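As the next step, I selected for study one protein, both as residues and as discrete backbone shape codes, as given directly below:
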Amino acid sequence: MTAVPAASPPTVAIRCAAVTKHYGSGETRIAALRGVDLAVQEGGLTMLVGPSGCGKTTLISILSGILSPSSGELSVFGTDPSRLSDGERAEWRASTVGFVFQQFNLLPALTAAENAAVPLLIRGVPWKQAVEVARGHLAELGLGERCASLPRELSGGQQQRVAIARALVHDPRLLVCDEPTSALDHETGERVIDVLRTAALRSGRVVIVVTHDQRILRYADALLRMDDGCIVGDRSNTSAAPAEGT
């Protein structure tokens, strides 16, 4: 009988140890993060929940290299982005991170496909090739017929899906999403979260979703709860809904 090799332990892609973030000083000092300890495994969809103002957006901004922590230790795929120079950090973000924030930040003069192609264009991919790749991501999100539309011709939910396509188009290792289903109806929201979970299941990738949307929590592989600048709950979701095709 051939022995079955033991499964490899999951790889921890992101670690935080006693991470804090303060704004201001003296009597006006505000503690947004109060000592976050965190370990996120690759190859899964992690959801971050908690009341408004508890530090969720600050935390994902630090993980994605937009903000630097005030203190503590941070590792994202073996790199602490806060220790990089401004130029190195910008390059790291461009190659490693995809963003989906509540403000869509679409360029009004570009079509949906051109907006979604921007991360590839920044990295020097030829225009035609970049737009073609972007079209494929838009089609996957149900916007195949709106590739030539300008942002003003799209609904809020459609603009949000363009922003998601833009975040995925350059195949980032870390995808951070702030309320990606907030402007979507139930059916479209489930379609979007299924795309995100399929992306998350790729080896070597992490997808973190900040959400208040109770409808999508069943898709999470791990669920983190924040309150008052701290992680107060951390659990795996063994009953997570499977992605389509898995």
